Amino acid sequence: MRGTALAAALGVVATLCLPGAAVAAGPGPDRAGSTASAGTSGPVEGSVRRLALEPKSATEASVSARGTERFGLMGVSWKDAAAEVHGKIEARSRNAATGAWTPWVTLEPLKAGLDGDRPGARGATEPVWVGAADGAEVRVSGGSAALPAGLELDLVDPGTAGRGGAAKSAPAPGARTTAGAAVGAAAPGPESTAPRPDVVSRAQWGADESLNDEGPIYLAGGKIKALFVHHTAATAPYECTDSAAIVRGLHVYHVKTNGWRDLGYNFLVDKCGTLFEGRQGGVDQPVMGAHTYGFNSESTSVAVLGDYTNAGASPAALEGISKMAAYKLGQYDVDMDGSTTLTAGATQKNYAGTSFTAGQAYPFRTVSGHRDGFNTECPGHQLYPQLDTIRKAGPAARLKVVSVNGEPVAPGGTAKTPGQLVVGFSTSTAAQLVSSFELLVDGAPVATVAGDATSVATMLGLGSHRIQIRATAKNGKVSTSLPVTVVADVSDVKYVPVLPKRLMDTRTGVGVPQAKVGPGGVVPLKVAGVQGVPAYGVTSVVLNVTATNPTEAGHVSVYPNGTVRTSASNLNFTPGQTIPNLVVVPVHDGIIQFYNSAGSVDLIADITGYFLASGEGSTHMNLGPKRVLDTRDGTGGVPTAPVGQGGVLDLDLSAVDGLPTSDGLTAVVLNVTATNPTTSSHVSVFPSGTTRTSASNLN
Asked: Does residue 527 contact residue 536 with C-beta atoms inside 8 Å?
């Protein structure tokens, strides 16, 4: 890179920002709506034509202007990788469409050993992408020392989909690795809290896998701690329809000219935001790349196609980097707006003059620029300040479930509940940046809380459930926690009856303040440890709830503390009416909630029994409240019509989600409501297949 100081190479995978392409002349401005040409008919076999430079003197050489077969990328190489070229190396090309010659472009030499100590490696310059060209000229001059032997102009044809020859079969992942490196993983990589972005795969951009016969190297620790951002130092516009060809050209040049194992970067992104898979080994895997000298062993990379020295990257490119950073760092519980420590693999200085000593640990931002780890301008003076925008553009980070019903649980762990579920969660993202959290049960959202919440609750049906938290940041980005398994089991839950005792009376202030409950009002009632109810172990209570002195028609809902109230009611009333009903409600934190829908009303609650997590008696599972029948709208598969005089209505409970099979179900607890009667009457509820008695359940 221009103005770049290079350190001695290590025996590990390493490179600079430079393996990109400096564009001498683009084919013109982007066409409206153009996208990356990703799809191919199979591997595209690129080629390299080499033209020997003719010596003019000991310090000068050239390739005179001449027509050539078509190519898209060019660079200069020489036999001895350790040799240096003193003087200026310049090149230009002829546009195949217009016949015009481009201005001269200076090609900067690359340091030897950027991808480790490799047999047959050649010294080389950075390549320059020229688009469709059919002529070239090179000159080397101004040096004070003799030129190295074997100077050649390398012209890379990246091939065209359907035109290049078919490549050989790709080797098995991890077929060969260097000493000390982890063998390629066969299983999928870790699940991420962020969505996996769309990535143009190597097969889609036409990678010739016959060039990669060594297999990938994976990070020895198996964990990515940081992502480095690069640019490929392209100096002129390109069309996004050319992006796949640019990536193929880089691949061919890195392997056939430089003698590297593979393309250097883990991922690339163009100015239209299209992401490309770079170095072989798997988008979801911790692949060892060749991108940030001295720090490749704990990081991954994204390179932006283009030169961002004098202008910043496009919003689409920044979004592409952000998506990849969120996904890759989210695989390893890393906050893309956080900090980490990396162990230096080389003794060197970075662009800011910070010194690193091999083997020592140093602080880094989890999204860093190439210059943070190496003495280079990369990713460009204008892209580097944009990194903070990228860091803050992600979803809620380090999102995880931390507890179930107050008990700690780790991602992937298992917990048990008799039905009520309170999920505690955490994120490293500030609450003011989060819009909301959703509780997902088996992939479906069941409850939503605000962005400053740390817990959410619901009721579970019997069986095993996959529980996750989904966060929506205020920037619209979504992240989802790794799952925990929660098993709802009532085999140990037992019922204990008690003599009726008053727990609440708003008329006299028993258990709650002395005042009517207003419209939309919610009254919390502590039941655990009150009136003989145990302080611990109570899962549900059985109450006789009475509404009296209502000023308007309305209803009361009784529900567990901390859960999201549903639309179902437990008690319905009209003005001036006094009406009771039996309610079974789960208990969380020893508290239950009473909600009044309209007007003002006094509420009374008497306890008649409770359920414990162990002991003798019948088991009980609370699902509610959940509506299972409504003749007004056909809920429950019943006719949408009033039940006439002497009418009998069958309700099939087998279709109710959360109920056990008929073999394990002996009875149900229902809140039955009659509305819009035309005359005085009563309702009887009785088991199917039995003879109805004269007793009524509702008058």
From this structure: no
